[in-house]
Amino acid sequence: MKFEFVFLAILLRTVTASKWHVYPDPEYKVMACKAGLESVAAWCSGTSKSFKCACKNKPALGSWLNCVYNQTTKHDVFAAESQVIKYCDQVNVTLTHEKLKDAYANATNYLVDVSKDESFNKTKPINYPITFSKKAKKAYKGYYIGYKHRFGNVTTSHYLGIASLSMWGALLVIASALHWIGKLVPSAKKSLTGGLFNNYRKSIALAPTFSKTHLQASEKPWANGYFPTRFESIVLIIHFIYCVVACSVIGFTYTEGDKVFKNYMAGTSRYYGDRAGIILSYQLPLLFLFAGRNNFLQWMTGWQYNRFVTFHKWLARIIMMEVLIHSFAFVAQSDALGKTHSRLQAEYYRHGIVATVAGCLILPLAAYIVRKFAYEIFLFVHIVLVVMFTWTAYVHAESQHYENFYWACCGVWIFDRLVRFIRACVFGIRTAKATFLVDEATIKLTVPCSSYMKPFPGAHVFVQFLTPTTFWQSHPFTIVSSITDENHFHLYCKVKNGITKKLLQKFQATEGSEVNVKVLVEGFYGQQSPYHHYDKAVLIAGGNGISGPFSHALKLATSDSKTETKLFWQVREYSVLNWFGEELMQLKNTRVQPVIYVSNPNSTFDSVHYNSPSSSSSDNSDSDSGEKNTSSGEKTKDANDSHSSMLDKFGFIEFHQGRLNATEVVASEIRESVGSVAFGACGHPAMVDEVRVAVKNNLSGSSKRIEYFEEMQSW
Ligand SMILES: Cc1cc2nc3c(=O)[nH]c(=O)nc-3n(C[C@H](O)[C@H](O)[C@H](O)COP(=O)(O)OP(=O)(O)OC[C@H]3O[C@@H](n4cnc5c(N)ncnc54)[C@H](O)[C@@H]3O)c2cc1C
Ligand SMILES: *[C@@H]1O[C@H](CO)[C@@H](O)[C@H](O)[C@H]1NC(C)=O
Ligand SMILES: *[C@@H]1O[C@H](CO)[C@@H](O)[C@H](O)[C@H]1NC(C)=O
Ligand SMILES: *[C@@H]1O[C@H](CO)[C@@H](O)[C@H](O)[C@H]1NC(C)=O
Ligand SMILES: *[C@@H]1O[C@H](CO)[C@@H](O)[C@H](O)[C@H]1NC(C)=O
Ligand SMILES: *[C@@H]1O[C@H](CO)[C@@H](O)[C@H](O)[C@H]1NC(C)=O
Ligand SMILES: *[C@@H]1O[C@H](CO)[C@@H](O)[C@H](O)[C@H]1NC(C)=O
Ligand SMILES: *[C@@H]1O[C@H](CO)[C@@H](O)[C@H](O)[C@H]1NC(C)=O
Ligand SMILES: *[C@@H]1O[C@H](CO)[C@@H](O)[C@H](O)[C@H]1NC(C)=O
Ligand SMILES: CC(=O)N[C@H]1CO[C@H](CO)[C@@H](O)[C@@H]1O
User: Domain of life of the organism in this record (predicted)?
Assistant: First the structure.
């Protein structure tokens, strides 16, 4: 947890570094006087944006002050003088309020009205002060309104950017407060069962965005991944609407006679461009923060990493929208100013273009389909493009003094990588024992624990298999603390098409026996759901999703909590007892009631060759081939013996043939319970969604506190 505080400090440091200049109104007047007068007469040769001539040349200073005193009132004259002193200080001319008054008094003796002179050449330097003529006043007004719009919009944009960050901050603070109150004073949370709370939870906190679909949306080809939950959608929609309004409502329109932007297009596009550019700068660090594995906000809010990943994805899409507004606005502005060609030569402009292109490529290359079928390619391309985007955007922004935002992004990213590195170092390279479980197409890994890190139920680790072709991949797996080996934990890795398949090919030659494999482990990650605060815990698992729910059940069984626990497990074959029997044995004679649903009607105990916790692996492989012969041939008396002896051994488990109906389980468990109930689910996405929806539907029918914890994460 110490990491989290260091992180907070770094983040605050980078955020406070993003200071900018707010222009007070007198400053606009001082700037506009100088620019207005210099547009009607010249005192030095060559035009310059600097204040050198205006400060050093006495007639120029006199004319400038004449305008400043004419346009200010007694309320802002002092501020305006101070501004003149500040500008002159920048060009090493030291002035005071008295000196300004003297210079003005002297100048008034020599003022010349040049506007009446038709032949006056306004680019030829003169050596006398001029009056604040009508012409000069018109120029002044044009500059005044121009600067006010230009820099006022910048100020507004900063405030809007800060406001968007503050809204996220407020949300996270509220979520953290609720999380910690629930954690420290469990009874407070349990007492929130009134109609209002249940309605809120029913229609927002627990509901998927659309009626039934959250995780299982990923199975629909058009869905591009998971649907957020309704709570997440509401947060994101509010954020989206805010961004649209903030980017599109500028607050004023282009004024004719604006001398800063000579035409409508040049002005308007600049306002939109600045607005979008500044707001997105504030939001970028959030994007990097939410994507990090070691994001301290997980610890504060109790939200799982996948919720932050959801926010990360949608924020990225909205920020890209702002990037495009910014880019196209400046394309339009360059065109309106006739500067397209010259800007294309400028380094900052070119970097801006590259950043936009890189950003645009990131989104389609991170689509669900890419992540599903080529996760490693996605990850590699994502990192390369994000580095490209950040670097080019940094160079682009630095030219306009917005680079601090990018330092914040890099700080967040580097910090996350650093913590990951430290975590991996603390665990060190370990030798894991790998066993291939044929029937389940699962690789069982037994990994020695680090004495510095304490595993907790539901935790997951990221594993790198240190073989020449796979060492760079980092995969998440849920841990199960080992029962047989002290200070070890198991990972049950379902064989899929990537790294797990590669490992399988390695092990296939040595089926059934153990293989040593070097791994680098990074953990422990995840949030532990507080089932022990509830009177009853109902854990529902499907297939390989058993790891998390089982760990919770075991913890509840072995700790002195009074929580009544049920562990439902949907499997295909009885043969799961071969690989998970030892674990389940631990639940014998405890408060935990395991219930197993076997879906394959042909499955029997015959394929189970569970002996005792001390059975060696070579025994297993012998009986394995023996079993295969019996199950394909006629059933022998042995098989019947084994059936009854199995029933003996696993008698404490309730077995059912058929599929587990999550809706029914949820409804009946709530009906039967006398106190508060917490549900947890991990397994097939459709089943997990079913549990979520069933819990949501049954909230209002119950006066007890009913909670749902999703034990499954995907991203
Ligand atoms: C928090 C968490 C806990 C998990 N616990 C378990 C577990 O206990 N047992 C288990 O069998 N599986 C678990 N998984 C899933 C497991 O991470 C993937 O099955 C594994 O990474 C697939 O590797 P592959 O290269 O063989 O898969 P592929 O065939 O390449 O891909 C299969 C699927 O896994 C996803 N995937 C691939 N690599 C990653 C990655 N590095 N990070 C996230 N997703 C990835 C892909 O998007 C794809 O949808 C867990 C996943 C998460 C997020
Ligand atoms: C007063 O103004 C005149 C004309 O600009 C200038 O030549 C002269 O040096 C000024 N005197 C002082 C004391 O500033
Ligand atoms: C400002 O200058 C104008 C001439 O441009 C003049 O009419 C007006 O009186 C001046 N106002 C003040 C407050 O000096
Ligand atoms: C002002 O003076 C400082 C130090 O004397 C010098 O570094 C700087 O370049 C000067 N600035 C201008 C605009 O002359
Ligand atoms: C005005 O002055 C500038 C610089 O002294 C000179 O180049 C230009 O030709 C002059 N223009 C006219 C119309 O006299
Ligand atoms: C069960 O066995 C019958 C007959 O052997 C077979 O037709 C059926 O497909 C099997 N069912 C499953 C789910 O394996
Ligand atoms: C299993 O049965 C097959 C034929 O049914 C036989 O060839 C094989 O040797 C048997 N294996 C064992 C281990 O008995
Ligand atoms: C197994 O034993 C039971 C009684 O214990 C008996 O009813 C059944 O027919 C036996 N089955 C086989 C295949 O021997
Ligand atoms: C589960 O039960 C409910 C109500 O009892 C029923 O509507 C639903 O269709 C069942 N689901 C499955 C998958 O059988
Ligand atoms: C008590 C209660 O509200 N029970 C409901 C639980 O949800 C199922 C359907 O999901 C309803 O049929 C029950 O009436």
Answer: Eukaryota
